[in-house]
Amino acid sequence: MINSSAIDSPSFSRRQLLNFLTGTTIAVTASAGLYTVGKFLVPPAEKTGAGGGIIAKDVLGNAIPASQILAEAPGTRALVAGLAGDPTYLIVKEDGSIDSIGIVDVCTHLGCTFPWNGNDQEFQCPCHGSRYHPDGSVARGPAPLPLKIVQVAVVDDHILITPWTALDPRTGEKPWWV
Ligand code: FES
Predict the structure, then answer these.
(1) pLDDT (tens digit per residue) in 81-100
(2) CB burial class (10 A; 0-12, 13-18, 19+) of residue 95?
(3) Between these two residues, 28 and 82, which has the higher pLDDT value?
(4) Which of 38, 51, 99, 104 has CB atoms 3.0–4.6 Å from 148's, for a disulfide?
(5) What is the mean pLDDT of residues 143-155?
(6) Domains of the chain: which residue ranges?
(7) Which protein residue's CA is at the shortest distance from atom 3 of ligand 1?
């Protein structure tokens, strides 16, 4: 069960957030199965390479083969370690490929991590109730901004994650994180 008082604390650290993410994944998967939460949990941050890109990793710091993600059902949101160790959702599209846009699992309100609710087709933050559409745009506040996105590419059997610096496709404007 999620400890909401701990979540509401302003001193809730990044490490606690990641622990929370792990607990949430297990708790949700073990209960009603309402959420399709990624099972590829998050290792420590990694330095970025040339171009600011990194290879997506799992909780043990091992590179996740693209074939492992592609074996998931269409519509799956698979959670991996992304840029600066940020938990990042990769999306398996209906055509069986990995979406070229990944969504960073850090709420723009106060930084909580959150699950994907497949029934509602929303990311739903448990801390203060923000909800996001599948593309990461805000469906309901208090979140003030759309979720950060990253570029995702499959290179051989690796998944390369790089910063998104182009216009934000949801707003048509310069991204708030650039
Ligand atoms: Fe407040 Fe997500 S951190 S709604």
Answers:
(1) 999 889 999 999 999 999 99
(2) exposed
(3) 82
(4) 104
(5) 96
(6) 12-42, 50-163
(7) 110
